[in-house]
């Protein structure tokens, strides 16, 4: 039972699969989701793939009394698809758009057009400040040969950077969303280890839901089970993460997922299962909020993080190699287009070169070939520009990772020279932060 | 004279104007800049427009002993142009790329290709943590009719959001760069008021430099004075901002700018003047770092901020209106291209429609017209996609501004109902952050 020092917070997360004209039974499913949310009255609702603003506004109307506060994150061409509803007032909002997110010419997959991002809202829950994040990473279309892995790793890197750097000063951090990564995938480990966030599923005292916490299950009528290969029953790619602070300890009392079908309804809420976590917040008498950006890490954790960031760096390097190759191909295609154009012009100018003096270059062929050359040149130019941007983003992430590994290794050295744990972060240091030798 | 409780920190900022093949005397100027920096040994060096990585690496080699720590921020197609050198160790780096930054088809201006951003490095200065930001905003090409104003306002909005949300927990915040905004411009006021950052030029005890602190002066041989119109002598668009925290108070002891010519050299360092601030940090016995993201604002400041954000919102709405019009034009052009293509196909299929049965559609004209139609359609599609992204970014910023105004007005109301100053931010609140009514 709750006493005056504890608060219970219910957090809901769902990938709504709300693609206009493409997602089956979209409107009926949104009606079902709206009913569920207004009935259940979760404190915080984190939605993904709400691609249409109309659908968001429909939900907003429906939830105006149960969830008076909301924010819709706009980004990219279609939007970020991210939306949040809250019973507690939203104080501030900020969006970070990932620097990499697939390719625009893979239009049938649509990820690039979605402008995938991480959205942050700052909630005031009484006198508590909660930093709540919602995100959706690039989809995994083929696990065996996942060409988007470097992009997703960079997204996970940027996600943990964003959370680490912006959550300082908060009493409570919550992250919900569809990471499109399994629990033991590189990106998930990177996120968990670097931020100190806890996974609701592994931490919960009580779980009720699909086998192994799956959120993308083979039984779902909207899923083609072949897409899940090599996993027969399902995968866990949606999460609710959380962490407390010096002022608040957080415990996950229970975690539940929907189980496919919905009572009295012909189909489930979405092609993903929804997650609901019940968090118990307990007032801590001592300490302050998250006053430093780095989690307080022990030597073992630091070493683990060094390994994970090194692994991520390797993956980014693979991505760099592929992006360089792609850019080279675009440049070569452009050069070929230009050569073809020059050749055509030469033939047209001096017909005897190829066709003989009595056979002028047929006009129609001339124009058709010219148009083709221009099309090749222009496309190659656009692709070259795009791949250069991809390269810069990958190199930027790799630079940051190298810096992080260096910094972590330095801290590890501090441990080995028998300095006390978390010497940089100790609150007592704040009493006398100066140890620089004054100049002159 | 410095005592053990005080530290002097020298910060340098310069827009290097380092465009390969275009910027005059680039290599000689970099050599001069390198010499200046290695001689002066500033603690922190913030550079903008270092467009070529080769130039950065050249500087890095030259400064390897005076400034052993450095970071180069990569972004966009050419790069962000941002670089930082430091005598103190760089602990972490993070980049935020602005969501809006001009148009790719304005290739001669080049802003879009630059991927303008704000870069952050976290320095360890003894036991102090300093958050150091470097940025470069979109250029102002015509002050009378500044079509990039909404983009620059959104950049200023995102800049202040980024600094507010990431600087928490720091002892010292420094921002240097070329804002391309005058001191009383909307974006500068927005940045200053919302973050609480102090402008080195207005705060300094001692100033030595160009008249009125100008950093872009008419006398500079690389500048066409007409570009400065209606300002005859120069403008101040480069800044060093700073603020302390509960642990450290900061005073700007002196600020200087270069004054065009360099002794024994035929030309100045750049088309901008360099800035150098000498900051005096003083240990504060009480308090902690920047534990909350909002600056502690009095009622007057809050009201001023509400006005400024409202003004920014109006500017963004103007931008929205223009972007909508541009997108509409792109859509209309696309429809016209499609209509032309269909018309051509109809004429080719049924020649008697326009040309009479005995006159078939000339093949060359058919292909040429077809290629033109496709070119129109493709360009219109690309522009439509781009303008949609622009619209989303503007709408997103406007949403955030609306939320911020609401939140600020709420705090103003709290003031009027006689609540004590900064009731949300008082450190004493952290002793008992819970005042939520427990559920059930």
Most extensive protein-chain contact, per-chain counts: A-B, 86 and 86 residues
From the helix content, strand content and strand pairing of chain A, which structural class follows?
Answer: alpha+beta
The portion of residues forming beta strands of chain A comes to: 15-25%
Order of neighbouring strands in the sheet with most strands of chain A = 3-4-2-1-15-14-10
Say how many strands of chain A there are.
15
- The tally of structural domains of chain A comes to 2
Helical stretch count of chain A? 8
- The protein's oligomeric status is homodimer
* Poorly predicted tracts of residues of chain A: 419-440
Order of helices and strands of chain A: EHEHEEEHEEHEHEHEEEEEEHH
List keywords for this structure.
homodimer; 440 residues; alpha+beta; Deoxyribonuclease I, Chain A; 2 domains; 7-stranded mixed beta sheet; 6-stranded mixed beta sheet; 8 helices
